[in-house]
Amino acid sequence: MAPVFSHGDLRLYLLNLLDEGPRHGYDIMQALSDRTGGTYTPSAGTIYPRLAKLEEEGLVTKTVDGRKTVYAITEAGHAEVEARAGELEGIEAGLADSVRLIADEVRGSVREAMKSLRADLAAASREERAATPQGPREDDPRVFAREQLQRADASVNEFRARVRSDLRTHVARGGDLAATVVDQLTAELDRVARDVTRALRG
């Protein structure tokens, strides 16, 4: 993947960002990410050494604000930004082209990955059909048991949802919920659970 910034362009672009106003390091990295549509997110190891170099050159100053270090452009830095305004326009244009190319590469990679995934899934499906050429018969007791289990799950979930809704609506409307009602509900559920267990054990 082609780099977003050519050699030396990042230095000037950092100056340009600081010419817009003081920023702390994370804010600078976030601004770079935002202006490249998220296709370029520089690391601290990329940004801070360049900021330190700009400070050495007298183009940037830094001040500590609590736990943050804020960088600001100097008059000399501002003068360089103005003197190289034409280069900045070229950087902006090149940046837009780079971002477009990277986005195209990413879309191409995603398309290839999806194509490969679909091919893998199709192959796996063919292998599975080959391994089990004859599916389970409708009268297979295992198939019937799974169907009944799904019915039971649906019934239990429907009962739970209905009772829960009734209880919540009743309380929300200011109704009382006596402990005896909850005790009775619990007892009935226990009784049904025991009946189901006995029926399963035959």
TrEMBL record:
Pfam families: PadR
Tree of life domain: Bacteria
CDD domains per UniProt: HTH_ARSR
Entry-linked SUPFAM superfamilies: Winged helix' DNA-binding domain (SSF46785)
Positions of the Transcription regulator PadR N-terminal domain: 14-82
Signal peptide location: none
Protein name, per record: Helix-turn-helix transcriptional regulator
Originating organism: Microbacterium helvum
